[in-house]
Every structure is written in C-alpha cells, then in structure tokens.
Amino acid sequence: MSRLIQRSLRQDPPRALRGEGIYIHDSNGRTIIDGSGGAAVACLGHGHPRVLEAMRTQQERLCYAHTALYSCEAAEELADLVLGDSPGGLTHMYLCSSGSEAMEAALKMARQYFVEIGAPHRQKFIARRQSYHGNTLGALAAGGNAMRRALYAPMLSDAFSHVSPCYAYRERGEGESDADYVARLAAELEAEFQRLGPQHVAAFLAEPVVGATLGCVTALPGYFPVMRAVCDRHGALLILDEVMCGMGRTGTMHAWEQEGVTPDIQVIAKGLGGGYQPIGGILIAGRIVAALREGSGAFLHGHTYQAHPVASAAALAVQRVIRDEGLLANVRTMGTLLEQRLVERLGNHRQVGDIRGRGLFWAAEFVTDRATRAPFDSALKLHDRIKEAAYARGLACYPMAGTLDGKRGDHVLLAPPYIVNAGEVEAIVSRFGDAVDDALAGLAA
Ligand SMILES: Cc1ncc(COP(=O)(O)O)c(C=O)c1O
Fold first, then answer.
1. 273: which of 42, 315, 357, 436 fits an S-S bond (Cβ 3.0–4.6 Å)?
2. What angle do CA 234, 238, 241 make, to 5 degrees?
3. Rounded Cα gap, residues 265 and 104, in angstroms
4. Among 43, 132, 205, 240, which residue has the most ligand 1 atoms within 8 Å of its CB, making it the best to mutate?
5. Is the shortest distance between the CB of 116 and ligand 1 below 6 Å?
6. Do the Cβ atoms of 216 and 184 come closer than 8 Å?
7. Is 140 in the pocket of ligand 1 (CB under 6 A)?
8. Rama region for 236: left / alpha / beta (φ>0; ψ in -120 to 50; rest)
9. Backbone angles phi, psi at 144, to 5 degrees
10. The pLDDT of residue 135
11. Are 83 and 58 in contact, with CB atoms under 8 Å apart?
C-alpha cells in the first residue's frame, strides 16, 4: 500500500494522471468527468492555458519572497481585481493558502478589531449547527459539523457556540410559514446573544449556501437580513464563509449578492485559485482595517506562505479568465439547465427527498420514503455507493453522510467547472441519475 496517508488507510485510490477541461484521466486508463470540480474547487476545469502561462511566467521571475520584506505584483493585482469596486464595502484582502487558514485569519481579525477599538470583552463567536468552516482547530471549533468535530471535541475552544441553520426541508415546522420560520431563527440567534451576554459576542458566522455538510442548502429569502439585523443591534460582526459557494459558484461573484446583506469579513478559497495553486483569503471591510491601522498598526497574524507569488499569479489568472470569458453568465445558464435536468431525471424519484442549490452548485438528499423523509440506515453508506457507482459510469461527484445531525442522512453534490457546456451537463445528469439507480438497486439486492 501507499506510504502516503490517503483519505482511506485501507484502500489506495487511483492516481490522477492528467486533466483537460472538465475531464480527469486516471491510472486505470479511465476518463472521468470532474462533476464536482473536486470539492467545488476546479472552477475553470483543468489545464487552462492562460492560468498555466501565468504560473510559468511568475515561476520564471520569482517563486518566493518573504512578506516581512516584500510584497509581490501578482498579489497586489489580485487584491485590486477582486476588490476593484469595493464590493459591499470590502476594501482589503489578506491572502493565505487554504480555506481553513482563511477562516482562522477571519476569526483573529474580528478579535483583534474589537481589542483595537477598546472592546476586548468581545471574545465569543456564534456559528450554526451542520456547518463547516475548516479542519484546523480554530476553524473546526467554529464549525458545527458534528461528525468532524466529535473526535477532537476535548481540544475545541468554548469561544464558539451554535444555533440552527436555515434548513427548511427538515427544520421548518409543519404548517410554519417561511416568514415564521425565519423569525424563529432570528429569535434563536437573539436568545444566544442574550445567553452569552451581547457585549461578549464578536461575530456571527455562516455559509450563505451551506456546502458539503448539508448539501447546497440556500437560506430562505429574508433570512440573512434578519440575522444581520440581530448582529447590528448588538454591535457584532457578520462573517460569511464563501470558501465553497463563493467566487462565482452560485452565479454571482459573491453568494451574498443574492441575499440582501454584505459581510464585514468574507472568507474565500477554492474558486479563488480554482485548484491551480493552494490559496485562500479574507476580504475585509474598510473600517476594520482602519481600526488596526490607527491602532497597533499591524495584523498580529501571519504565515510563511501568505500572498505567495505563484499562488497569487494563478488566482489572478483564474479571476481574469472568469471575467474575460463571461463565465458568470455561463454559470447561470448552465446552472438553470443543470437544475432542470436534475429535476426531470430525479425529481419524482422515490428515494430523492430534495434537490437544491444555486448556480453550478447542486445536491440531492436521499430518503427511504419521501413522505416521512426518513434517512437510510447510515451503515449502508448510500452516499459512498452512489459515488462508486458514478465513478464506474465515468463521473466524479462529492458524497457526504450525516445530513441531519452528523450521523444520519446522505446527500451528494455536483459542482461542475464554470466552463461546462450543455452537452456535458446532459452527460453529468445522465450518469448521475443512472448511478443513483445502480446504488439503490445494489442496496435492494
Ligand atoms: C465552507 C468551507 N469553509 C472552509 C473550508 C476549509 O477549506 P480548506 O479545506 O481549503 O482548508 C471548506 C472546505 O471544504 C468549506 O467548504
């Protein structure tokens, strides 16, 4: 077996040898549609010539220079491009190497901001159950992904607490209207502020579209504005984690553009660099940076590889391609087609309880019975069986267990690259639908 620690220590995966467009060629001689861009990462697909060229040029000039001494052009241009029109009042960018690192930076930035403005008592963070903000210990403590937290619970800080997500499919009461459900969630957040003491809360954190943990769950209309209002009432920040749903994935550059709110700090990664290099970052409101600038004069945080030149050059090229090739329009058009085809193929399926998402970010949640919404026995690992069946049919997708509570429930995500075309969407849905049938037939047998 491999000496590399793989996701499973019992079974080595095939090797990915080569990629082009939405396809990956593996060491078993198979050509696979990358139907989820890995974990919603490969937004331009593989081998985009402009990104490769930008990386090559940067590598030939300079691969690394320490940020204690130097800035670099690629990182400066990336910040200028992403923040060009100060979206939502976000004026500054901090760059690091992953989504988890970016989340750590967001938490520390929020904490330092309050210390700088004379409110050091703000040291609590409220996030949501069934969310994911990363795997480093701070980000893991922030997240509400019960399955990923359990083993490490004794090591997780009690600075974090959790309220309910906006998960209408399962958590809206019977007969409860959307408005009443949203009001109930706002009241729950208000109660959590009161429990902690509103003066102690630094920020509320949420994914605008919940990614892997719940499977592309969008909030109900009006949810984010009322949650923002609770934060504003108590002087706490709103941190939006767009690591998975951001940078164009939902059809707008930022997922919050469709929610009627703007964050104080936004966390980004995956689609920022499209997997061409490891890169993540935070976008920060001007007043927060001003407070640090006028206060201690520095962000008390840092990483060896922050604002890495080659990673920045890759992300800059990815972001330029998204703009130059009008790919957000393609995300919206192909996203509508993907939704239509998924609903046609699986909308009446007895074991598909819900199909949901936005842009090119879709998931199906599986149930034994659509009326009771009962999940499958988790020992059956239906999500994994669908992944295996899909791979056998030439499609890579992103499966997840524990939809309801970290233990029960199965869903599978699709998040194709923004360059996907109509024929490829048809192929993805056809292979996915057949894989769902194969996996369920396997269970029945
Ligand atoms: C919403 C969200 N936040 C944070 C992270 C952590 O990102 P990374 O795996 O790059 O550390 C992820 C990764 O899946 C994510 O989906």
1. 315
2. 155
3. 12
4. 132
5. no
6. no
7. no
8. beta
9. -115, 25
10. 97
11. no
Amino acid at 381: K
Å from CA of 102 to ligand 1 middle: 9
Beta bridge partners, 217, equal: 210
Q: What is the pLDDT of residues 4-31, one digit of tens each?
A: 999 999 999 999 999 999 999 999 999 9
Nearest CA owner, ligand 1 atom 8: 99
- Please tell me the distance from the alpha carbon of residue 138 to that of residue 178, in angstroms, as a whole number: 33
CB of 278 within 8 A of CB of 95? no
Distance 100 CA to ligand 1 centre (A): 6
pLDDT > 70 in the chain, percent: 100
Do residues 400 and 383 make contact, with C-beta atoms less than 8 angstroms apart?
yes
Q: How far apart are CA 44 and CA 370, in angstroms?
A: 36
Is residue 230 a contact partner of residue 204, using CB atoms and an 8 Å limit? yes
How far does residue 153's CA lie from ligand 1's centre (Å)?
19
Confidence of residue 311 (pLDDT cuts 50, 70, 90): very high
Stretch 259-270: mean pLDDT: 98
| pLDDT of res. 353 | 98
Q: How far apart are CA 161 and CA 318, in angstroms?
A: 36
Compute and round to an integer the Cα radius of gyration of the chain.
Answer: 21
Grade residue 59 by pLDDT with cuts at 50, 70 and 90.
Answer: very high
Residue closest by Cα to atom 7 of ligand 1: 99
- Say yes or no: CB of residue 37 within 6 Å of ligand 1: no
95: left (phi over 0), alpha (psi -120 to 50) or beta: beta
Distance CA 16, CA 39 (A): 15
104 in ligand 1 pocket by Cβ < 6 Å?
Answer: no
Tokens of 52: 């490769």
Taking phi over 0 as left and psi of -120 to 50 as alpha, with beta for the rest, 221 belongs to beta
Q: Which residue has the tokens 């929610």?
A: 259
Q: Chain-centre distance of CA 77, in angstroms?
A: 24
Residue 445 has pLDDT above 90, yes or no: no
Which pLDDT tens digit goes with each residue over 420-435?
Answer: 999 999 999 999 999 9
pTM higher than 0.90 for the full model? Answer: yes
